[in-house]
Amino acid sequence: MITTSTTTATSTTATSLIALRPGFWRVVHPAGHVLGYIEEVGSGAAHQFSARRLVANTTRLVDIGDFWSFDSARACFA
């Protein structure tokens, strides 16, 4: 399980990840607009990370996919 404080942002090369609650992150472009969300899903020992992209100029989210690692889900937004 990935644990991140809800009061801090984690920087990546092109985006920032802001923990909104345990297991749920907002992906933000360096210019400040929201790119999408990553959510930890699963039960027991099997955890996956679901990535969803926000469609520009709308409130619609599009599923990108489910990934076995947080880094793989994060790479979708690079």
Short synopsis of the structure:
This protein is mainly beta.
Distance between the termini: 22 Å
Describe the main β-sheet briefly. 6 strands, antiparallel
Beta fraction: over 45%
Overall 3D shape: globular
Radius of gyration: 12 Å
Q: Helix coverage percent of residues?
A: under 10%
What order do the helices and strands follow?
A: EEEEEEH
Q: What oligomeric state is this? A: single chain
Count of helix runs: 1
How are strands sequenced across the largest beta sheet? 1-2-3-4-5-6
Structural class: mainly beta
The number of E-state strands comes to 6
Ranges with pLDDT <50 over ≥5 residues? 1-9
How confident is the prediction overall: mean pLDDT? Answer: 83
Count of discrete domains: 1
